[in-house]
Amino acid sequence: MNQLSPPRWVTPLYIAALAAALAVLGTILFMGISRNPWPLDGDIADVTINLGGTPVREHCTSCHPEGSTATGSPHPDIAPHETAELGCTGCHLGEGMALDLVVSHGLPGNGARAILKKKDIQASCYRCHPLQPLAGAEKAWNGYRLYLQKGCDSCHPLAGLQQSGRYAPDLTAVGDHLGIDQLVTAIREPGREPVNSTMPRYPLSKRQARNIALFLKSRTARPLFQTPLAQLQKKSLLQPDDLFPGSEQLSPGQALLQRKRCIACHRYNRDDGRIGPDLSYSGLLRTGTYLADFPGDPTALIGGARMPAIRLTAAEQRLLVTELRQNADRLQQTRLTKAVEGRDLYMLLCQRCHAADGNGLGPIAANLAQMPRAFANNRNFFAGKSDKELQQSLAQGIPGTSMPGFARLLSPERREMLLDLLFKAFIGGGRYAKRRLPELPPKPEFALPAAAGQQLFQQYCIRCHGRSGTGRGPDAARLRLQPSPRNLTNTGYIVSRSDNQLLRAITYGVPGTAMPPWLGELDEQQIWALLREVRRLSVGEQP
Amino acid sequence: MNGPQRNFLDHLHPARVRLRSLHPKTTLGLGIAAMTCLGILLITGLTLLLYYLPDQQRAYERILHLTTTLRFGTLLRNLHYLAGNALLILAVLHLARVALTAGYRGRRLNWCYGLLMLFLIFAGAFTGYLLPWDQLAYWALKVGSSLADYLPLLGHPLKVFLLGGEEIGAETLLRAFAIHAAVVPCGLVGLAGLHLWRVRRDGGLATPCETPAELPARPWLYRAEGSVALITLTVLLLLALWLNAPLGERADPGHPPNPAKAPWYFVGFQEMVSYSATWGGVIVPSLMILFLALLPWLDRRERGGGRWLAPGARPWQLLLMLMLCSQLVFIAIGLWCRGPNWSWIWPPGGG
Fold this sequence. Notes:
The complex is a heterodimer. Chain A is mainly alpha-helical. Chain A has 26 helices and 4 strands. Among the domains of chain A are: 125-233, Cytochrome Bc1 Complex, Chain D, domain 2, CATH 1.10.760; 252-336, Immunoglobulin-like, CATH 2.60.40.420; 339-427, Cytochrome c-like domain (Cytochrome Bc1 Complex, Chain D, domain 2, Orthogonal Bundle), CATH 1.10.760.10; 450-538, Cytochrome c-like domain (Cytochrome Bc1 Complex, Chain D, domain 2). In chain A, helix 5 (138-149) crosses helix 8, helix 10 (252-259) packs across helix 15 and helix 21 (450-460) packs across helix 26 (524-538). The longest helix of chain B is centred in the middle third of the chain and has 32 residues, at 170-201. Chain B is mainly alpha-helical.
C-alpha cells in the first residue's frame, strides 16, 4: 500500500482551532457569570398580578421598588387604587417582561406600549372608568369633549357612541395601536401617513390635540378590570349634557347646526371651524332642495366632496333650510349693504376659497373636492373664456363644485363690480381683451369604437386622472399638481359642460393647469373618442 | 493503524481517506460547517424551547424575558439566529460547491436529499422568523406568504397550510412553532443522517480518479473535521457577541411598516415580483427550482466528478452561478435600495 506522510497542517490547525474555541467559550462564560446582565444590583422582581382575570407578569419593581421613580422619589398616593393590586403595566404600559432600559419602556415606532408618565397617566383612567368627569383625568375628559365638539365622531366610528360616521378608520381600539405622540401627530398632520388621507387639518392647538390623544389612548379592545357584564353595561358612552356651553340661548336652527357638528368645520356668522365653506350666506346661494339634500349625501352634489353624510330628519331639514335662508336674508340686508366696494365683497364672499391674493389657495382650498380657480397669474385661462361664460359662472355657479351661484345674493351691478375687480386686482390685461380661440376638430364621419376610447384613456390620461378617472392618478400626488387633475367622475360638473368646452380642453389644454394640448399627439378621431370616454366615465356607465 | 477502541463516529467515517479529501481546497469544509451549525441550532433551540410559548399574547413577552433577564439569554438567541442564517448560507454554498465540482455525478439520490434539506432549512428559517411575533416577523411573514401565492398550483395550498388559514393568526403561530420545533429538526436530522450515510456508501468524497485511499481516517480526518467545526463555532460565538438578533415592536396587524420586507433570503423574490408578478413570481422561481432539481440529470455524465469546473458540466455550472449571483444582486437591491412604497433609493441605505 502506498503509505503517504500525513499532511503537516492538520494537527496545528486542529490545536489552534481548539484553543480559539476554548478561549472564546471560556471568556464568554466568565464574562456572563461575573457580570450581572441587568442594570441594577439585586434580584429580579417577578410579580404576577391578576388584572381582570388575566394574569400579567412583570419585572418592573426590579428597578422601581414599590413604584418609585428612577430618581428614587416614591409613587404618589393613588388611593383607592393600590399598586400591589394593580401592578404597573396596567396603567403605565411598557413591557413588563423586559428588563432593559430601552425595551421595557416601550420601543419607539407606533408607540403602542410606550410608557405613560406623570400627566399622561390619565390616558389610562378611562380604560376602566366610565366616561364622566374624573378627578385627575381632566385633560382626557377635555379631550373627549373636544372629540365630540370638533365632530371627530362625524367621520370616525367609535364603539359606544350612539351615532358615528363610517368614513374614517375605526378608533374603538386605537389606544392598543398607537402611542400618545403618534396620536398627536396623526391629529395635527393627517397627510403625513398615509399620504392620501382625506382628513382635514383641524385648527387645534398642540394642547388640544394632546388632550384628544389622551382620550383616544384610553380606547382599547380589552379594558382591564372589567367583567364582560360591566363592559356590556358601559357599552354606550355617555355624551356630556353640557357639550356646548351656552347652547340654551341659541335659536332652534342655530342649535341644530351646532348639534349636527356643522360648525365644527363650516363657518356660520361668528363661529368658524376653518375647514369647510361659509354657511352664513348659503341660504341665498343654494336652492332649498339643494340645502336639504346636501348633508345626507354630499358627494351626489359635489363629486369627491370630503364632507361625511349627516343624517337629518325631514323636520330637521326644514329647520336647517329656514335657518340658513333667514340668516342669509338678514346678512343681505345688513352686512352686505355695508360692503360698498368690490374689494369688501371679495373678502366677504370669495377669499375663503380663492384666497385674499387671488392665487386660489384660500384657507379652506385644500379641503375642497376641486381646487378653486386661481385668478392671479392666470390671464391665459380667463382670456380664453368669453365674458358671458364668466358672468354665467358667477351668477349660476359651477355645477358639481363648491362654487355657488350669486344671482340671488348679489344684484347684477354688484356682480359686474366683482368681475371688474377680479380683472383689475388679479387677472390683469383688461376684462374684454380676449384671445381668438382656434378651431375645434370637426366631428369625424366614422367614430372610433368605444373600446378604442377606453384604450386611449388608459394610454394617455390615467397618469394624472387615474385609472377610473377620479383625478387621483399617480402623477397627481407625485408631482403635487395644482390645481389637482379634474375628477372626471363628477357627474354634475361634466354633464354641465358642453361638448365644445370639453373638446377645447382636450384639444388645446387648459391654461394655468397641468392639462396639456393633445392635438399634435392625437388626431381628430381619437380626440372625439376620448370625449366619448369622458362622458361615459362621468355618468359611471359600464363599458 | 486503528486502535482496538472504536466508537460510533467510526461508522460515519471510512477507515482510510485520500490525501486529497483532507485538503481544504477540495470541499472548503462547507458541509462540516453546515453540520456544526445544525448542531448549534439543535442545542440552542432546545434551550429556547424551555422559555418560549406559542401564544399570540405571550410569545413576545417571553422573548423579552428571555433576552433581557436571563443570563446568556441574549447570547443564546443571537447564536440561534446567527447559526440559522449561517446554515442557510452554508447550505447554498455547499450546493454550489457540489455543483461546481460536479460532485453529483453518480450520486443523484444524495443530491436530492441535499435539496430536500435545503427546502427544510428554508422552512425552518422562515417559520423561526415569525416566532417572536413582533412587527418585523409579522410583516415579513405576511409578505413572504403572499409571495407563495404567486407560485402556480402549489402556491396557494402551501400558503394556507403554512398559515393555518387565509390570514396570519393564532393558528399560524402554533403551526409555525410546530414546523419549526418539531418537523424541521426531525426532518433535518433524519435527512442529514441519510445524506452522510450516502456519502459513505458512495465511497467517500467524489474523486476524479480511482486512486486508493492512502491515509488512516483516524486521527487525520477527525482532526480536519474538528478544525472546521471548532472554527465555525468560534466565529459564530464571536459574531453572537456583536450582532443582536433583531426584535421590533409587538406585532400590529393594522399598522404595516413601509416598506414591509420579506426575510432577507426572500427579498430577492420580492424584488423580482416588483418588476413582474408573472415572470418574477411564477416563471423564474419555477424554472430555478426545476433547474436545481434536474441538474444531475441535465449533466448526463456518470463519472469524473470531484474536480472543480469538471469538463462536460460547465454550461450548467455557469447557469447556476448566474442564477445565484443574480439572486444576490436582487437581494442586495431589495434590502438596501428600496424605500417606502418600494421606491428606488440611492445611495443604498440612505433616504
